[in-house]
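Predict the 3D structure for this chain.
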Amino acid sequence: MNARWNTRLEYTRVVLWLLLGIGMALAFARYTRGLGATTALSDATPWGLWIGFDVLSGVALAAGGFVLAATVYIFRLEKYRPMVRPAVLTAFLGYVAVALGLMLDLGRPWNIWRAIFYWQVDSPLFEVAWCVMLYLTVLALEFAPVFFEGIKWNRAYQIAHKLTLPLVIAGIALSTLHQSSLGTLFLLVRDRMHPLWDSPVQPLLFFVSAVALGLVMVTSESFVSSWVFRREAEWPLMRGLTRAAAVVLGLYLVIRLVDLGVRGSLAVALDGSWPSLLFLAELTMSTVVPILLFTLPMTRNTRVGIAGGAMLAVGGIILNRANVGGISHI
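Done. Predicted structure below.
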């Protein structure tokens, strides 16, 4: 048993160290050769797949922190409390990764401090910058009680613990603004987007999909960690999260379809072109199949239904962010 457990853990470590090494090598190349030379980006094509994955997907993947915090501290569903700490830690690490990624994305990363002192209140990116900074601070403070508890600093732990509820409320407010404002960015480039993704309700779609992604991401993380460390997954809690995810994904699907109908673009989704096929694949992965797996009696209580549906939904929403962030641009 121990040998098998160590094998899984060691293989996971090897893969993660390998990815880290590749990332550091690419970061070195970016800073020594410049952004254009290493990405082929230009003024005509300033954003690529990296933005769709790093910023748009990375921020959404970290949504489990505010979703689980709201579930426990606002809606008082105490049975999910064991999942709050891992979700907040994952969100904190996710936002750290986004911040580091932005240092690579910016053409002049040494000017990142300018957003603090030079306010551009008409710019969606200004709001994004401030929300990233503030929410990253809130997440660090939310996780502080765990740190103080670990080092046995009782006084600091008590103070940090008393601040939990105000921090949760601040985190929910910031996340709501931040998740939706990422969608607002793409209202500025609607003339370049394919009709299947060119939507005036993009901020709403980004927020609703982020809530759903937070639920399925926490489910996926719980399953993966239980597999790596060879312990039984928290299936009852995961089942509850996927039940809620099915409702939110259903709402997201309805909004997408109604939006397409109002804009007269439903026929485009079925015209057989490669954008329509990509759109149908995205919608099938992110909503249709996961909803069926989460709700059908023969799959909703099975490991394949819970874990498989959650991971499929994660992949589908990441594909949506990539489509909105660059693939759909004409």
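The chain has a mean pLDDT of 87.
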